[in-house]
Amino acid sequence: MITRELVKAEVEKVQTDYLEVLYKIIKIFVAPPKDDNGKIAASLAGKDDEFDWHAFIAQTYGCLADDPIERGDQGVCEVCEVFR
What we know:
This protein is mostly helical. It has helices at residues 4-11, 19-30, 53-60. The longest helix is centred in the first third of the chain and has 12 residues, at 19-30. The model has no long low-confidence stretch (mean pLDDT 78).
C-alpha cells in the first residue's frame, strides 16, 4: 500500500527543475478549481467532467527533455529444449 510517507520520500528525490510541475499536479488532486456551479472548472474539464489530458500534456510536454527515456538493449533470451 502506498502511504503519505512513501510519497513524501519520492518527492524528496525530484529534481528542483521539476518541482513547479509536480506542485501543479499535486494541487489538481487536492482541490481542483471549480466554477460557480461547483463543477470542475472548464480549463481542467473535458467530456463529463473528466480531466483534460490534452491540456495537461500541453503544459508538461518536454519537461524531461534533459533526461530522455531510452530503451536499453534487447538482450538475449535463453532458448529452452522444449521449443527446439
